[in-house]
Design goal:
There is one protein chain. The two termini are about 80 Å apart. The radius of gyration is 70 Å and the shape is rod-shaped. The protein has 3 domains: about 160 residues, Elongation Factor Tu (Ef-tu), domain 3 (Beta Barrel); about 70 residues, OB fold (Dihydrolipoamide Acetyltransferase, E2P); about 210 residues, Orthogonal Bundle (Helix Hairpins), CATH 1.10.287. β12 and β13 form a beta hairpin. The strands form 4 sheets. Strands 2-11-14-13-12-15 form a 6-stranded antiparallel β-barrel. The protein has a 5-stranded mixed barrel with strand order 1-20-16-17-21. A 4-stranded antiparallel sheet has the order 3-10-8-5, with no helix packed on it. By secondary structure, the chain is of the alpha+beta class.
Length: about 550
C-alpha cells in the first residue's frame, strides 16, 4: 500500500500499459474472426443445398370436417305417372274430334262425339213411359186404399141384395106356383062356361058374365105382367133359375092369350055364335087345359125349391166375396198394388237412366289431366269398343323405374329422397321413392322400385334414360380426405402419410368409414392436417418432404 501511495504515477503507467496491450491484441485478432465468419456462411450455403436435394417432393390435401353419404348408383327409365287408353263404349261414326296429339287436356274435357240421333229418340220414348208410370204410381197411392174400401162396401151391398132376393124367392116361389094353378083353373072354367053360353045363345046374364070374364082376364094379365117384371129383375141378378124365369114368361103369355080370348068371347056373345066361333072357343078351352096341366106339373115338381137353392148359393157367393174384400182391407192389399206401381215406375226410370247413360257414353271425355300422346282415329271414322281412340299421359309428375338387386333392398325405404341426373339437364333433379315391389324378378333377382319426380316445366320426357343416386347412409361432422391419400384398401389396415410441422412425412394408421366418389371418411386424422395425396408410396416415416403444387 505504501508502495502504491509512494508511486501513484506508476499505477497510472501500469493501467495505460495494459490498455495498450489489449488494444493491440484486439486489432491483431480482428482479421481472423471475419475470415472465420465468411467461411461458416459458405459452409451453411453448401449444407442447405445438399439438404434440399435429399427432400422428396409430394402433393398434399387438407383434411376437412364435412358431411358424407353412402349412395347406390343405379340407372332407370322415366315413365309417365299415369297412362290411360280412351275407348268408345259404343259403335258409331265420330262426328266431333276437337283435339290433336300433343294437346294438353284436363280431366272431363271433350275428346270426341259419337253419332247419337237414335238415342235421342229412345230417350223421348223412355221419358214418356216414365211419366206415365209415375202418374199411375201417384194415382195408385191416392186411390188404392179407397178402391179396396169401395170393394168391401160393394161386396156388402151385393151380399145384402142376394139375401133379400133369397127372401123374395122363398116368399113368392110356392105362392106363385099355387096362384098359377088357380089362375089356370079359373081361366079354363071361364072358357068352358063361355063355350056353353055360345052354344046355347046369348042372354043378358051371359053378357054380364062375359064382361066379368074380360075383367078377370085383364086383372090376371096385369098380375102376370107385374110378376114377370119382378122375376125378370131377379133373373138378371142371378137370384132365380132360367126355368123359373121361363115359367113366369109362359104365364104372362097365357094371361095375354086368356085376356084376348075373353075379349073375343065377349064379341061372340054380342054377335051370336057361328060354327067357326064355336070351334075357336073349343080350341081356347083346350089351350086353357094345357096351361092348367103345365101349372100343375110345375107345382108337383116343386121348381121353386131350385130357385131357393140358387138364391142361397148366390148369398153364399156374395158372403164369400164380402169376406175376401174384408180380408184385403185387413191385409192392406193396396200396399201391394202401390208396390207394384212403384216397381213399374222404377223399371221405367231405370230404362230412362240407361238411355241417358248411353247418351253420356256418346260424348267421350278425358279421364285424367295430361297430354294426348296418340290419336288412332280421324273425324268421320267408325269407333269400335275394342280399339282405343286416344292415349293420354300425365307429364306434370313422372316416375322413374329402377331395378334394385336383392342385396341392396335393405338399404332403401319408402319416402327416401333421391337425386336424378339426365342428359338434358346439368342440374340435379330430386325425387322420392314411392313404391317398392313386394316380389323379385326370378331371372334378375331384383325388385322394381318406383320414384316420383315432379316435372313442372316439362323438361323430362317419358322414355328418357336417368341416372339415380340413392343415399344409403348420411354422416355429418366427420373428417374427410381424398381417396388418393390412402395406402391400402382394407378398412382396418389402411394408412396415410401426414406432413408434420417439420415437413416430415409421418405414416399413420387410419380407420375408414363411408366413401362417396373420390372422398372417404377416416378416423385417426384431425381436421386441418395435411395428408399426402401424391408421392407417398416412396416415403418412409420420418422422411423429409417438399410440398409442391
Amino acid at each position: 500500500m505504501m508502495f502504491i501511495k509512494r508511486f501513484p504515477s506508476f499505477l497510472t503507467f501500469l493501467v495505460f500499459l495494459l490498455g495498450a496491450i489489449l488494444f493491440l491484441g484486439m486489432a491483431a485478432c480482428q482479421p481472423s474472426k471475419q475470415s472465420e465468419r465468411i467461411t461458416e456462411q459458405k459452409s451453411e450455403q453448401l449444407g442447405t443445398q445438399d439438404l434440399a436435394k435429399t427432400r422428396k417432393p409430394v402433393e398434399v390435401a387438407v383434411a376437412k370436417t364435412d358431411e358424407i353419404r353412402s349412395e347406390l348408383n343405379l340407372s332407370g327409365t322415366i315413365m309417365p305417372n299415369a297412362k290411360v287408353s280412351i275407348f268408345s263404349k259404343m259403335v258409331g261414326q265420330i262426328v266431333e274430334m276437337p283435339v290433336e296429339v300433343g294437346q294438353l287436356v284436363n280431366k272431363g274435357d271433350l275428346l270426341a262425339v259419337i253419332e247419337h240421333e237414335e238415342l235421342l229418340l229412345n230417350k223421348r220414348q223412355a221419358q214418356a213411359t216414365y211419366r206415365s208410370a209415375e202418374a199411375a204410381y201417384n194415382q195408385v197411392q191416392k186411390l188404392a186404399r179407397i178402391q179396396v174400401e169401395g170393394q168391401v162396401a160393394q161386396a156388402q151391398a151385393s151380399f145384402s141384395a142376394a139375401d133379400t132376393s133369397l127372401q123374395q124367392v122363398k116368399d113368392l116361389s110356392e105362392t106363385r106356383a099355387k096362384s098359377q094353378i088357380q089362375q089356370a083353373e079359373a081361366g079354363l072354367a071361364s072358357l068352358q062356361a063361355n063355350l056353353e053360353k055360345i052354344k046355347r045363345g046369348a042372354r043378358a046374364e051371359d053378357r054380364q058374365q062375359a064382361q066379368a070374364a074380360v075383367d078377370q082376364a085383364k086383372a090376371s094379365l096385369s098380375n102376370a105382367k107385374s110378376n114377370f117384371e119382378r122375376l125378370q129383375q131377379l133373373f138378371e141378378d142371378g137370384a132365380i133359375s132360367l126355368q123359373s124365369f121361363e115359367s113366369a114368361q109362359t104365364q104372362l103369355d097365357i094371361s095375354k092369350a086368356q085376356y084376348q080370348m075373353s075379349l073375343e068371347q065377349q064379341k061372340l056373345i054380342e054377335k051370336g055364335a057361328q060354327v067357326e066361333d064355336i070351334r075357336s072357343m073349343e080350341a081356347q078351352v083346350e089351350q086353357a087345359k094345357a096351361a092348367l096341366s103345365l101349372a100343375q106339373v110345375s107345382s108337383q115338381t116343386r121348381s121353386w125349391e131350385k130357385d131357393i137353392a140358387l138364391s142361397k148359393s148366390q148369398v153364399e157367393a156374395a158372403e164369400a166375396g164380402l169376406r175376401t174384400a174384408q180380408s184385403s182391407l185387413e191385409a192392406k192389399s193396396w200396399e201391394v198394388e202401390i208396390l207394384a206401381a212403384e216397381t213399374r215406375m222404377i223399371q221405367t226410370q231405370t230404362a230412362l237412366n240407361l238411355v241417358n247413360k248411353q247418351l253420356s257414353d256418346s260424348s267421350i271425355e278425358a279421364t285424367i289431366t295430361g297430354v294426348i300422346s296418340a290419336r288412332n282415329f280421324d273425324l268421320g271414322s267408325m269407333a269400335v269398343p275394342n280399339v282405343a281412340l286416344f292415349e293420354i299421359v300425365q307429364v306434370e309428375q313422372l316416375k322413374v323405374i329402377i331395378n334394385v338387386i336383392e342385396s341392396d333392398l335393405a338399404k332403401i325405404s319408402l319416402g327416401r329422397e333421391v337425386t336424378i341426373n339426365v342428359d338434358v339437364s346439368n342440374t340435379d333433379i330430386f325425387g322420392e321413392i314411392t313404391r317398392i315391389s313386394p316380389t323379385l324378378d326370378l331371372v334378375s333377382r331384383s325388385a322394381s322400385v318406383e320414384i316420383k319426380v315432379d316435372n313442372p316445366i316439362g323438361q323430362l320426357k317419358p322414355g328418357m334414360f336417368a341416372k339415380v343416386n340413392i343415399p344409403v347412409e348420411i354422416r355429418e361432422n366427420v373428417v374427410l380426405i381424398p381417396r388418393s391419400a390412402l395406402i391400402g384398401s382394407q378398412k382396418e389396415q389402411s394408412s396415410v402419410f401426414v406432413v408434420d410441422e417439420n415437413n416430415m412425412g409421418q405414416r399413420r394408421q387410419v380407420k375408414l368409414g363411408l366413401s362417396q366418389g373420390d372422398t372417404v371418411e377416416v378416423d385417426g386424422i384431425a381436421d386441418g392436417e395435411r395428408v399426402i395425396v401424391a408421392g407417398q408410396f416412396s416415403l418412409k416415416s420420418g422422411d423429409l418432404v417438399r410440398v409442391v403444387d
